[in-house]
Amino acid sequence: MAISRDFNKDPFIVIWELTRACQLKCLHCRADAQYARDPRELTFEEGKNLIDQIYEMNNPMLVFTGGDPLMREDIFDIAKYAVEKGVRVSMTPSATPNVTKEAIQKAKEVGLSRWAFSIDGPNAEVHDHFRGTAGSFDLTMERINYLHEVGLPIQINTVISRYNVEYLDEMAKMVEDLNCVLWSVFFLVPTGRGQASDMISPVEHERVLRWLYDLSKRVSFDIKTTEAMHYRRVVIQQKMREAKQQTDEINYLTALTEKGLTGSIDGLGRAPKGVNDGNGFVFISHIGDVYPSGLLPVQAGNIRERPLAEIYRESPIFKSLRDPDSFKGKCGVCEFRYVCGGSRSRAYAMTGDYLESEPFCVYIPKALRDKQVQ
Fold this sequence. Notes:
Elements: E1 13-17, H1 44-56, E2 61-65, H2 75-85, E3 89-91, H3 101-110, E4 114-118, H4 124-131, H5 136-150, E5 154-160, H6 168-177, E6 182-187, H7 202-216, E7 222-226, H8 230-243, H9 249-259, H10 262-265, E8 281-284, E9 289-291, E10 301-302, H11 308-314, H12 316-321, H13 329-333, H14 344-351, H15 366-373
Parallel strand pairs: 1-2, 1-8, 2-3, 3-4, 4-5, 5-6, 6-7
Antiparallel strand pairs: 8-9, 9-10
């Protein structure tokens, strides 16, 4: 992924919800998944056309999600088409009986770059409660053994909530013991089945983000956060403290963003700059609706009516989300707004306005601290 990627033109990552069908009943499900497939889903031919459009947008990463992508019989035909075109494809299926040895072998054969499973607790009691399905934890562990057998890299996704925040040390050890390449840590947004009462507090968000940074220095796997954009601020602050930086903080941040080096300097090592809802990130639903994120249910268009590139580049919704100076409250004046920007999804879920401040960040921007001193 080139550092020169312009998020105003091309996303860094595209998420395609192939179906909303799923056999699980997860407490936090964004999609409010159903047992049966929707007859309005994008067809195989429409899917190929979508992949062509995605490829033309500077070939971003593509993730198949759901529901459960394996509920589509043509999933591996779709994946094969994308991989043969040169797209880097990952998949996040649910741990259900659909995940057979044959399915995993097929994923390996068609060239999937990574397989992601969700694990939300270090044991069956915690995980199965969260997933709403008894036996889910044991099934996941069994299927991970399959993945190791075929040599497919494994990513673990975990949603942080009040149900599991006290088990994070055990979770981290489990991710390491399972020889995973990436721990993708999601911070709950109350949308779909997710409830505000399930979220951890703003202070707990800060504590967990600092814990993740400390963890990242001593584990073999990479750590990525979703809907915790303030992790970038935490990483930069911690690195500056460690280096005992004498440089003015704002000048330091300006230098980072101007050079487009925040990804390589702040140790996150993936996107060349801060990906946020609608800013380097785009979500396509099972019926072709386009959103800034699967957790930000503000529709910007439909690919059956307009090209994906046109929606991403020209939609007023996307354009406003790519302008941190348009953010309200403390996010709009925060010196970290170009590398963080706060969760636009959580702002929308809690206030009804996706440009409002991130409501679960405890940081007070320098501009506001200076005003208090005056």
